[in-house]
Amino acid sequence: MSGRGRAADGAASGRADLVVRDQPWLPGRPAAALEPGVYDEDSAMSGGFLAGLWQHLRPGGEGRPVLCDLAGHLGPRTREEPLRLVETAGLRVVGRTGVRPRHRCSRDVSGPLYAARAAETISLWRLTTDPQVERQPPHGPE
Questions:
Q1: 75 Rama sector, left if φ>0, alpha if ψ -120 to 50, beta otherwise
Q2: What is the model's pTM?
């Protein structure tokens, strides 16, 4: 079957082999129309996505949220919270690939958030509900 056919089958069933999402990164209340992409009040969007992910995965499928640990370095969220949300949702982490940012804020030693921005890692997590999926070692900074 072609890739197009598989995608159509997944859409019809509401299940897919792969679900990818770029999560809001910082806890807090959005104050402007564009801010829900950055702020996640009480981790409601992240927790809701993770809690419902299993309903949208085919057996052996993976969820791959993009997560940033900046909030863990700044203090409003612990660095363990994303893992707690994953475990609460009944998911398993089978892999994680991380990169350090290279943007200006991560190199501006005079910036007020320099220490946190220089230490942050943006990671692509591999999550599954399937106990048969083998865990792979992490790649990149953790």
A1: left
A2: 0.76
Distance of CA 127 to the CA centre of its chain: 9
Q: Do 90 and 52 touch, CB atoms closer than 8 A?
A: no
Round to whole Å and give the CA distance between 63 and 48.
Answer: 13
Between the alpha carbon of residue 110 and those of residues 5, 38, 42, 107, 115, the distances in Å are 53, 23, 30, 9, 10
**Cβ-Cβ contacts under 8 Å for 4 (sequence gap 6 or more):** none
Q: Of 119, 114, 93, give the one whose Cα is nearest residue 104.
A: 114
> Tokens for 60?
């052996």
Q: Which contacts qualify for 42-49: CB closer than 8 Å, 24 or more apart?
A: 43/77, 43/81, 43/85, 46/82, 46/85, 47/85, 47/88, 47/89, 49/21, 49/23
Mean pLDDT by 10 residues, the chain (142 residues): 44 83 84 86 88 92 91 81 90 93 85 88 92 68 59
DSSP state, residue 129: S
